[in-house]
Amino acid sequence: MKQDLLDTTFLIPIRLDGIIRLENLILSIQYIQKHFATHIKVLEASDFNNGFIEKLIGKGVDYYFIEDRDPVFYRTKYLNKMTEWSDTTYLAIWDADIIVPREQTMDAITQLRKGSVDMIYPYDGHFFDTSDPIRELFIKTKNIKVLASNHGKMNLPYGAQMVGGAFMVNRLAYIKAGKENERYYGWGPEDGERFHRWKNLGMKVKHSFGNLYHLSHPRGANSSFRSEGQRRHTQMELLLTQQSSKEEILHRLNTHF
Question: Per-residue pLDDT averaged across 185-206, rounded?
């Protein structure tokens, strides 16, 4: 029986950069739909609509296409648009390559519903990159036990304190706290900036238990810094948030609690 997540919308923005990314997106959506009665929105931004994603993701998913000829995927801007299009109490913001065990997602939504957290990561900080062979085995079996039993063959590319990949949030609190920081144009440490912004604002943020699984894929132009200048800019933005008081952050956001 599917778990009731009708008060939650999964938001998945994507720039399709190859068949593997498309496969990962479909696997992630299929896993969500298998276990939950919920809402899913997928936004594709690209220079033209080839129709692949819309056709293959199937029914029960709201699909949006935005023509965007910029080679840089402006993910923060598109997530903010998707938030504006959503009206459920909670949001689950997912990368396109993520598998989170059902029990962890349910623990996260339970804590949100109780009001004990404003934002929660549905894992304990262990962000495992599956590797290509384990990803292929998961495709063949669709069995999450394949992932759970092969940790020793996976990498932790960001250590054991990751704050990205997937998070779940009270939608109104997310809006109040500034949603995504659109000063992050392209790939960068926006996950860290978001985490520190919420903590400095005094919001209730925590991790759940268990692991997150990232289905491996080739790293394209939107999976790394574009230049040394862009790297410095994004790191300075992170440092500014880390060192800002609640009042300074609220002034920058031009909002209040």
Answer: 90
